[in-house]
Amino acid sequence: MNLPKIHSITKKLFVALVGSFLLLFLLFHMTANLFILRHDDGQWYSDFCHFMGTNWVVKIFEIVLLGVIALHILLTVWLAITNRLARPVRYHQASRSKTHPGSKLMMWTGVLIFACICIHFYDFYFVKVGVVKGEYMVKVENLSKLDAQAMEDEAVSDVLYRAFNEGNISEDGKWIRHINYEERTILKERAPESDPEPDFYYLTREKFSHLHIVIGYLVFFLILFFHLMHAFPSVFQTLGLNNYKYNPIIEALGKIYTWIIVLGFTAVPILVYLGL
Questions:
Q1: Rounded to a whole number, what is the largest CA-CA distance in the chain?
Q2: Tell me: the pLDDT tens digits for 189-226?
Q3: b/e per residue, 131-162, with b = 16+ CB within 10 A?
Q4: Which of 129, 172, 196, 235 could lock onto 136 through a cystine, CB 3.0 to 4.6 A?
C-alpha cells in the first residue's frame, strides 16, 4: 500500500489540532443540549435551533465541522496504518510498556464513536435535510410572508387549519408545531415562505421516551468517556504544552472536562426518559 509520505509527527500535530477543535465543540454542543431540560415548551431550544439553522455563519461552520470530523477520522486511521506499516513484523514478545490503556484503545473507541455519530446524524441531521421523515414546525411570523396565492391554496389551508384547530401552537406563540413530513412537503412546495424546519425539541423528547434508545446513547457516552480521558491530555502532549510540573494539572483538568461533558450529555436522555 502506497500512502502519501508525510512525517508521522506532522500527522500527529494535525490530529491534535483538529481534536482540540472538537473538544471545544463538544462543550458547546453539551451546553446547548441542556436547554432541552428547561420546562418552557422548548422555547429556548427551538429558538437556538432556529438561529443555528438560519444564520449563514453557522451554516458555514456546520460544513467546516463536518469536514473537521472527517479529517480527524482520516488522519487517525492514516496514522495507525502508517505506524503499522513501519513495523510489519511484530515483536516476538508482547510489549510491557506502561502505555496508558486509553492510548491503545483510542483508534477503536474512535471507530465506535464514528458509528454512533452516523446513527445520531440519521436521527437528527438527516431529518433536517429531508432524507429522513420527522416532525417539523413553522414560525408563526412567517405566515405573514405568504402571498395571496399560497393562502388560498387548499392544501396549504388544510395544513394550517389542522395545526390551529388542534392547538399545535407553542406556549410563547412563536411556533406552529407537529407538522408531519407530508405537510412539510406541501408547505415547502406551495408556500416556501413558511420555511418549515425540524422540531428538534419534540424529536429529542420523543426519541428519549424509548428505553432502548436511551440505553444506546448511554453506551455511546460511555465510549466517549474513555476516548476523552486520553484525548484531552494527549492534545497537550502532542503540541508540546506539557511538562513534569504541569502534567498533574493537565491530567486533573482532563478528568474534570471529561466528567462535565459526559454527565452533561448523559443527563438529557435520562431526565427526559424520567419525564423531568
A1: 80
A2: 888 888 888 999 998 999 999 999 999 899 989 988 98
A3: eeebbbbbbbebbeebeeebeebeebeebbee
A4: 196
